[in-house]
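Our preliminary data section would be incomplete without showing what the modeling component actually yields. Below, a chain of 408 amino acids is followed by its predicted structure, encoded as tokens that our downstream tools consume directly.
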Amino acid sequence: METNRKQFVEAMKRAMLVAPANCPKPILQCARLHTEGGSLVVQATDLDMELTLHIDCKGELPPTVILAGEAEAKARAAKATECSIEAVNAEAVRFNGGLATHLIPTLDPAEYPSGTAMWPDTEAGQNITLIGPDLYDALGIAAVARSKGSSRYAIDGILLESDSEGIRLVATDGRRMVECPVFAAALSSAEWQGKTIISAKTASVVRKLIGKKATGRVTVKVEPGKEGQVLRMRGDGWDLVAVEHPGNFPDWRSVFPAAGSRFTVEREAMTEAIRAVATACEADDNYVMARIGPDKIDMEAGPAHARANASVPASFHGGGDSLIVSGFNPKYMEEAIRTMRTELVGIEVWQNTTRGTGRSFVISETGAHLPARWVVMCVNLALPNTPENRGSNYVADPKDDEDDTPSV
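Predicted structure:
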């Protein structure tokens, strides 16, 4: 069997996304190769996910199981435009990349696990077709917000939801949440409507399969499986089947509050200012106090003897009080703003309550057709009862005065 060497290297790299070299089961470090209809078919699985790749080839190759990492290293070190793989016996194949030939050990194809036994044979379910680059961006944004701890049931995955209002990815770690709409390449009466949770690994693999330079489309089908739903995704030269991530995703719509005071700020200026003042934060005092006004946002952080201050221009667009004093975790706020794809970022915030309790921030892309938006929890500053701190919620009641010691 002969094929393009660079395409073979790329196929092995993709197989290693699913079958990593550090997998404790040797058979799951391997890729299964065979020829079919003028194509080299490469398969890799970790039992929860199965990837199938197709590249053009000449000749025939019987079912062969080889270590994906070893095959990729041999092909990458070669220089020829074409490479060949020849079955020698039941225990090895000969790889020829032009400079040298290599014997690569093989495993018994009959022992290679086929994830297809886990997937339904029916063609039930409905498709949605997404723009590849848009899905790539949305998966990257959602990955920032999702929980990184495996103990956080369900929210260590990413929600994929489709309904009459559109298609979106939603992720949260309990302290911030992002909703990122995804463009549909085609709409039809057969469009799938429903929801499923994509595991962190599946989301990461799909994003790498799409790639930064993607220009194509990705077709998604969600089907009922033997244990939960099954997610099928197809891109340019690849097919991925994965089981649904377990758990019940929280009601994300209830997290996004109703409209509040609206401000806009330049993305780069805001992220640089947050990063600068955050250097003064201490481990047990990790917050930035923000005075969000009609023409600028003043920020300060750190203990009194080492206080840091920064200001950035801002614009007020109505919706509530034009001055709000609040606080936020600098890491969470910077990460949310940094994912924005527009130069101007919208900040929506609500006046502190009469008890001095702050409200969450909504951060969104300004001017985008389908803007991504974040909810970032505020830090409770326990602000004293003053007209500036509570604005239209101010109540002149001495009993309402509270300790101004910041707390999270």
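Residues 401-408 have pLDDT under 50 and may be disordered. The chain has three domains: 2-116, 119-251, 256-400. Preliminary results of this kind motivate Aim 1 of the renewal.
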